[in-house]
Write a structure and sequence with these properties.
Layout (H helix, E strand, L loop, with lengths): L2 H5 L6 H14 L19 E6 L5 H11 L3 E6 L5 H13 L6 E5 H8 L21 H6 L1 E2 L2 E2 L2 E13 H7 L8 H12 L8 E2 L4 H10 L5 E4 L2 E4 L4 H15 L3 E2 L7 H9 L4 E5 L2 H8 L7 E4 L13 E8 L9 H13 L2 H7 L7 H4 L2 H5 L10 H10 L11 H7 L14 H18 L3 E2 L1
Parallel strand pairs: 1-2, 1-3, 7-10, 9-14
Antiparallel strand pairs: 3-13, 4-5, 6-11, 6-12, 6-13, 8-9
């Protein structure tokens, strides 16, 4: 089936995807390998693969896949989100049993497990055939030493969500395009009655690294088992200077953590006017906000230089295949991963408001033209596509980034309580990361 034919189906509903999957199977039309029998062509019986993920809507994918692949069953286990899942996976890998055939990993965790030689290379199963459709950033996010260790299924190009009504009340005529304009808008928002702020930040490690990425900083370097941690570069200082001054002037809400009930309430009542994060937040806002529906808009991230278009990512992940799982099930596991990342599963993903990092999606004219009533009828996909294309691809994650983010609160987090400056917090974080790297056997510079 042609790429054009598949793109024409990208906007179908989940129910329609199931029907299409059945038709595709009966007609002998589908993604590569769609008609193979589990572990291999001609193999009798059913192959059951295990998938670890915390995605709450995974059932839609499994149902659609199993209808079009009747000889493969997918058993889903929620081993916890982020660090909880990674700990369970580490325990299984160390024990040599209970290892899943597939596991969802944030991009930074792909690097963590790949550098330890605990993931299978996707090059061994057909990744090269679909590689070029993934964005350059997505390819980079799953690659270690030139080898791909996952199939990207979600992405997080950063955008600025802003409440247009709050801006209008504050006298902000248009979305800030530079960080200088963003600060000016912050001052106007702070002058409103009540306790309004332009945004919130409590020192989350993932957010900080994304902001540094967008500023052009490269605080981490990885060369085999040699790693570097350095928060002293000029682009790090560029971000710190801007952000520290806003914190000092109380322009940022440093007490409200993202994802809390209080955070959602403040977004809905206008107490927090912007969110700087991955574009994946679109679907969550639609589900969790009611009063402010129609008030929100998307815009590119503010820039340090007028006219620039630099961007970073926040979030996103891939399906990976751990080593030590049942070798006889690897083909079936890859088949599901490829279906999810690049086959008919893309339509299910889009129907749920997901953002697959595929060039074929980001350039699809119909998808780009879709308007979203929650965002005041804005063609949000165009903003998201541009944001994805502007993500720089030379940022590197530490091979223990998940751990790094988990301890950021002990150092950088203290800057949000006025106990240290951001620079001091980053320096303390760097020292802790260097020490941990040495303990884990890395050569640290």
């Amino acid at each position: 089936m042609s790429r054009l034919s598949r793109n024409a189906r990208l906007r179908t509903t989940t129910a329609e995807v199931v029907a299409i999957g059945l038709i595709g199977t009966l007609a002998g039309c589908g993604v590569p390998g769609a008609n193979s029998n589990g572990a291999g062509a001609g193999t009798a019986g059913t192959t059951e693969i295990t998938l670890w993920t915390w995605q709450s809507t995974i059932g839609d994918f499994v149902s659609a896949f199993e209808k079009s692949h009747p000889t493969i069953k997918v058993k889903v286990t929620n081993a916890g989100a982020n660090e909880d899942e990674y700990m369970q996976l580490t325990n299984a890998l160390n024990a040599g049993n209970g290892i899943p055939d597939l596991v969802y990993l944030d991009f930074n965790a792909v690097h963590q497990f790949a550098i330890s030689d605990q993931l299978r290379s996707m090059n061994d199963y057909g990744y090269a055939d679909i590689r070029d459709d993934f964005t350059k950033a997505a390819q980079n996010n799953v690659s270690v030493n030139g080898q791909p260790y996952g199939l990207p299924i979600s992405s997080g190009p950063m955008v600025m969500f802003y409440n247009q009504d709050v801006f209008a009340k504050a006298g902000v005529a248009q979305a800030p395009t530079t960080w200088d304009e963003y600060r000016e808008a912050a001052e106007k928002v702070a002058a409103l009655k009540g306790n309004a702020h332009i945004t919130n930040d409590t020192g989350d490690g993932g957010f900080l690294t994304s902001m540094l990425w967008q500023a052009g900083a490269k605080p981490f370097s990885v060369d085999g088992t040699t790693v570097g941690v350095d928060f002293g570069g000029k682009n790090v200082r560029k971000f710190i200077s801007m952000w520290q001054s806003m914190m000092d002037d109380k322009l940022i809400d440093t007490s409200t953590a993202m994802w809390t009930d209080d955070w959602w309430r403040k977004l809905d009542d206008g107490s927090i006017a912007t969110v700087l994060t991955g574009a994946w937040l679109v679907s969550s806002m639609q589900k969790n906000l009611s009063t402010s529906a129609g008030s929100w808009r998307l815009a590119p991230m503010p820039q340090y230089t007028a006219g620039a278009h630099a961007n970073g990512e926040n979030g996103g992940g891939a399906l990976a295949m751990p080593k030590g799982s049942d070798d006889s099930k690897t083909q079936a596991a890859y088949e599901f991963a490829e279906w999810f990342a690049h086959g008919d599963g893309v339509a299910v993903n889009l129907a749920q408001g997901g953002l697959p990092p595929l060039n074929s999606v980001l350039s699809d004219a119909d998808w780009l033209a879709e308007k979203d009533e929650f965002f005041g009828g804005q063609a949000t996909h165009q903003v998201i596509a541009d944001a994805a294309k502007n993500v720089t691809t030379d940022f590197e994650y530490l091979p223990y980034m998940a751990y790094a983010n988990s301890i950021a609160v002990n150092s950088v987090g203290q800057a949000y309580h006025g106990k240290v400056t951001l620079q001091q917090g980053l320096d303390q974080w760097a020292e802790a990361l260097r020490e941990y790297g040495k303990q884990e056997g890395f050569t640290v510079k």
